[in-house]
Design goal:
By secondary structure, this protein is mostly helical. Helix content is 60%, strand content 3%.
């Protein structure tokens, strides 16, 4: 045994973490063994692994979803288990199901990056190593003789210690002496002797161990079976098989691990017979052996068990089927899954689906095609997903058949499956979905065209369908960077209007400066749709040499979208604004009167980013505009720009006849912290529009509600619940004890506001902030009689 050697077993997807573990062990003075470091080209893989495990005093198995499914990882720890090597599981990434053997051992939880228990892991290794009690020199003949002599001591402890020393020495000459100790009167000594014989591993020990395998003491039988599991002879395999029926769980576990580690395929027919045993544990062990040894002949037996016993053994059977990897099980598993889904489509177990997904291959296509034709949407969806996973063209007709499925999830699954194929020639069938009424299905079709046909596929879609322009344009923007520029320039000259327009839009979205010159050419296109989107793209790219071309389009009234304000001229105006033509600010401001919301948003964003000193005079002037929309937007932007120099002009709008303007004024005054609002607070509070009164209360809370308590107290009686809620919140912020009584009166106000709040709930939350006895008692009494309690009040210590 290499001194302080620790074997690290892991799935290669977890290689980075395994390297961290390796370095931690090196730092702690251990000698970690990992297969990618120690095995050399030409080495016998299996022999190298076996030797490394036997030469280690402990094995760390890194648990993750991938390692749980890895046959190699399972072999490594099972071989270690069968050879008596101590196993320490380390949970690196959580997995839904841990192997029953690993689950029975305490694992170290490393799933959290912070505070990983490195010290505890190193501590466990150090304790294990101390127990081995390596002493030098082990090959000293006098030391060996003393150990043999100690086997005859009258003290059981000394005889046990002698067995441990002989085990470490590994000298086959000790076998006969240890064999005699197998009949010692002390059970502990017999256990130590069996362990020593197993550790020495000499074939001469087998008959001695077999003669004692029926020891009356369970712990001794456990040690003997554990030792036997290290040998691979017909007689040992027979004994391990018999041990599967032992009443002691540990014996069954060691026997199972031994049969697996020794690859006892010759016993598989006998193991299959155990599938009908009455003992649940025997059946579990038989299933595990069949799965680990990948016995295809047992598949039909396992499926029969799955049909008859879908409860206690289900997970074990499915794990075995996954390990065997025989796709002939798919039809039966699908049938079981379909039966479950028919009963309860929303809560059917996923374990069958997981097993099916791992087992399918091209031979399963016919079965999956029948799933796609099912009357149940969940089965059709699952069938489509699996056909995509296989990627066999034989499944394409079925996938195309459900592109128009009444269930959107099935349609999306089919489209995603089609996109998983490496190549596709049936683009016309995808085109049909571009005319679908559902936006998401049009988008799926567009991205499928992009996946298979790249630019040519999208051009095909644009010329073959009159719908899905924006979906195709969005898909196109994801393809442009990977395409030959000459192909893009050719598309910008395409005879079809939709192609030219879509490419212009996509270039603007991706901000591809290389195509500025081509876009400037399209500014004079015969189609207003193309001109408008080209102008918008130029604005996004900020092509500095395009000012003349854009200026020539300012009076172009060609429409782009359905509303009258979406003209080429207006798009040109915004593009020029982005290019810094600030002389156009008055015209830009007037676009706030447009019926196109996107235009208004673009103007707002553009002016926010412009030089304040340039924009401010025009905004103040626009406060006198005839358009209510312009005035409202100007007030909002002045507020956002903290334009205190505009206060006088904003105050003049307090008497506006338009509710939206008055509301915007209130917000602006609040943002600008204008105390002069108190001069007219009463007139605002008496406004005929509830939204203005509600804004007044909110405004007073934002400024200084203490100065306007009379007004707020009056608003507590307002006919509108939202106004009362705003007044309650504002008064609650004052924490003025004089207002407690008014808020207590609101605890009886059960009216709801527009956002689902009740006046009484808001009043209770406001009162809790006072921290005085009167408020506390009132809220406590209210909570005892209230049908519901607001979330914010749940922690009040009454």
């Amino acid at each position: 045994m290499a001194e302080k050697q620790v074997f690290i077993s892991y799935a290669h997807v977890d290689n980075d973490f395994a390297e961290v573990v390796q370095q931690k062990l090196i730092d702690a003075g251990f000698n970690p063994w990992v297969d990618n470091k120690q095995l050399k080209a030409g080495d016998d893989w299996r022999q190298g692994i076996d030797a490394a495990i036997r030469g280690s005093f402990a094995l760390i198995v890194i648990i993750s979803p991938e390692s749980d499914q890895s046959k190699y990882v399972t072999y490594e720890w099972a071989f270690a288990f069968g050879n008596g090597i101590q196993i320490i599981p380390v949970m690196y990434r959580s997995t839904e199901k841990i192997h029953p053997r690993l689950d029975s051992w305490h694992y170290e939880d490393f799933t959290h990056r912070i505070n990983r228990p490195w010290d505890r892991l190193i501590g466990r290794l150090e304790e294990l190593f101390k127990e081995i009690d390596l002493r030098a020199p082990f090959d000293n003949s006098s030391y060996f003789g003393e150990a043999l002599k100690a086997l005859g001591s009258w003290k059981p402890g000394e005889r046990i210690e002698a067995c441990r020393v002989l085990a470490q020495l590994g000298n086959a000459s000790a076998v006969d002496s240890l064999a005699r100790v197998l009949h010692d009167t002390d059970a502990g000594v017999r256990v130590a002797a069996a362990d020593a014989l197993g550790s020495i591993g000499h074939i001469s020990a087998v008959d001695h161990l077999l003669n004692s395998v029926n020891d009356l003491v369970p712990t001794v039988r456990v040690a003997i079976v554990k030792a036997l599991a290290r040998f691979n002879t017909p007689s040992v395999i027979d004994a391990l098989f018999i041990a599967l029926a032992d009443a002691d769980m540990s014996i069954v576990e060691y026997a199972t691990a031994g049969l697996i580690a020794n690859k006892a395929v010759e016993k598989l027919p006998d193991v299959r017979s155990l599938l009908k045993a009455e003992s649940l544990q025997i059946k579990v062990s038989a299933i595990e052996i069949i799965g680990e040894l990948q016995d295809r002949a047992s598949v039909s037996y396992l499926l029969e068990m799955l049909r008859s016993d879908a409860g206690t053994l289900r997970s074990d059977i499915l794990a075995a089927l996954r390990n065997i990897g025989d796709s002939t099980a798919v039809p039966e598993l699908l049938s079981l899954h379909m039966n479950e889904v028919e009963v309860e489509p929303w809560s059917a177990s996923t374990d069958l689906k997981d097993a099916i997904s791992l087992l399918i291959d091209k031979s399963s296509v016919h079965t999956l095609v029948s799933c796609v034709a099912s009357t149940n949407w969940a089965i059709r969806q699952f069938g489509a997903e699996l056909l995509g996973q296989i990627g066999d063209p034989a499944g394409l007709p079925a996938l195309f058949s459900v592109l128009k499925d009444p269930d959107s999830d099935v349609q999306n699954a089919a489209m995603n499956a089609i996109r998983s194929f490496p190549q596709l020639s049936e683009l016309p069938q995808i085109i049909e979905n571009l005319d679908d009424d559902n936006v998401s299905r049009r988008s799926e079709a567009a991205y499928t065209l992009a996946k298979f046909g790249a630019l040519s596929g999208l051009v095909y879609g644009l010329t073959s369908s009159n719908n899905a322009f924006w979906e195709l344009s969005n898909a196109l923007s994801n393809e442009l960077l990977t395409e030959d520029p000459s192909a893009v320039r050719s598309a910008l000259r395409h005879e079809h209007t939709r192609v030219r327009a879509a490419f212009a839009e996509a270039i603007g979205v991706r901000q591809l400066d290389a195509y500025c010159q081509e876009l400037m050419t399209l500014v004079d296109d015969r189609a207003s749709f193309v001109r408008g989107l080209s102008v918008r793209a130029i604005g996004r790219l900020k092509c500095s040499n395009a000012i003349t071309a854009l200026t020539a389009r300012l009076d172009d009234d060609g429409t782009i979208f359905s509303n009258s304000s979406s003209t080429v001229g207006n798009f040109a105006l915004i593009a020029l604004g982005k290019l810094g033509e600030m002389s156009l600010v008055p015209r830009l401001i007037n676009l706030w009167a447009a019926d196109d919301a996107s235009l208004r948003t673009e103007v707002r964003s553009l002016l926010e980013d412009s030089e304040r000193d340039v924009v401010l005079p025009h905004l103040i002037e626009s406060l006198h505009n005839d358009s209510i929309s312009v005035v409202e937007e100007a007030v909002k932007l002045l507020s956002k720009l903290s334009a205190t120099e505009a206060l006088a002009h904003i105050r003049a709008l307090r008497r506006s006849s338009d509710e939206s303007v008055r509301s915007a004024v209130i917000f602006a005054l609040a943002e600008l912290q204008d105390n002069s609002v108190y001069e007219d607070v009463e007139s605002f509070a008496a406004d005929t529009r509830w939204v203005v009164r509600e804004r007044v209360a909110s405004l007073l809370a934002k400024l200084d509600p203490n100065r306007s308590q009379p007004t707020l107290i009056r608003l507590l009686q307002d006919e509108d619940a939202d106004v009362r809620i705003a007044a309650v919140e504002a008064l609650g912020m004052t924490k003025n004890q004089e207002t407690v009584g008014y808020l207590i009166n609101r605890l009886d106000d059960k009216a709801y506001g527009m956002l689902g709040k009740r006046v009484c709930d808001v009043a209770a939350i406001s009162l809790q902030n006072y921290g005085i006895k009167e408020a506390t008692e009132a809220v406590s009494s209210w909570m005892q009689t209230s049908s519901s309690t607001p979330e914010n009040i749940s922690d009040i210590p009454f």
